[in-house]
């Protein structure tokens, strides 16, 4: 029993020092699972002991909710998890505000229950204490007019507040708001800037390369704005961010924001490819096959082709005119 008590104390201490800053309960759940596995503890024993504490603190109550939601040492039970999150939230435990709102929202989706008032109430509570995810959710609520009067200016304000607090999740929505002038004036420079940051810092790279190019062609940047975007990409390229390297290569290849330079384009494509970027690898193969920006090298091109998972027809097209 003493061992389990000690493990639980370690978990609570670990949570207070590290995990309480995580806003999404899924992130907290993953950290707890990894922590238990790393220390080779018995999750069932910890959950049982946690549940049997007579005078539970608000942290204990919140942790039980996490265990119940993600099935850590017990079966997964979202309704039971919600009851513990709700109790912790009513005790004034701020990390529980967002979790409570989120699960009330799930109840709406899964059981067609009308919890809109509770969802909005707890997301607003989370936003009011500075929760970045809470701010984003309140922004979405006002932008969509979910059970409130639609207010794009207020929605933009919430998203901008999350951005100012350091939320990487805010980059993509703020980019769209600036692009289409929703709740704010159209600003294509900021739309491009935050779209790039969304890809590099937020990891939202899917389909974003084409969107950025469209915006770059639509926008007449002044020199300072163009240099700001270029320097940002260059900074993260030197930090070995493969998407930044890929896009810096694109700028050099197309002469966008910088003088066209195929050698530098190849250099950054190659760096990105060796960092695991499949799109960059395809571009490197094209350059090697055609001898653009580097010496023509069919042997290396074929070697890289053997490692790629690009569609065969696409790759055959690259080779067809050069074999």
TrEMBL record:
Q: Which domain of life is it from?
A: Eukaryota
Q: Which SUPFAM superfamilies match?
A: HCP-like
In terms of Gene3D superfamilies, this protein maps to: Tetratricopeptide repeat domain
Pfam families, sorted: Sel1
Q: Which InterPro entries match?
A: Mitotic_Regulator, Sel1-like, TPR-like_helical_dom_sf
Q: What is this protein called?
A: 7176_t:CDS:1
Lineage of the source organism? Answer: Eukaryota, Fungi, Fungi incertae sedis, Mucoromycota, Glomeromycotina
